[in-house]
């Protein structure tokens, strides 16, 4: 299934090894034409969030400064949040857990 309208996209700075915090399809790992097409396919978003979760988890296991780990924690949290039902009770619980763990607020 493909979306019927094009999603607006903001211009972003290059990542250069930074954490993927928000939309994995707009990251440097997947960019350009392939990323634009993949954003229009909801199933590709599910796969991309799985890749984002794995990427963040692997980087969290490495030996990095706390500031870098914070970004990867936020990326992992935002990726896993996509697999939780979109009802107000579940999302509220997830938001409270995120605040307790010190995860950056979602945009």
TrEMBL record:
This is Uncharacterized protein. It comes from Pseudomonas cuatrocienegasensis. It comes from the Bacteria.
């Amino acid at each position: 299934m493909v979306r019927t309208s094009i999603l607006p996209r903001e211009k972003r700075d290059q990542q250069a090894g930074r954490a993927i915090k928000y939309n994995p399809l707009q990251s440097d790992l997947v960019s350009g034409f392939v990323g634009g097409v993949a954003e229009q396919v909801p199933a590709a978003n599910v796969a991309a969030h799985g890749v984002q979760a794995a990427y963040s988890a692997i980087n969290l296991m490495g030996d990095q400064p706390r500031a870098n780990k914070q970004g990867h924690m936020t990326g992992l949290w935002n990726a896993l949040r996509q697999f939780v039902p979109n009802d107000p009770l579940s999302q509220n619980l997830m938001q409270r857990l995120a605040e307790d763990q010190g995860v950056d607020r979602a945009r």
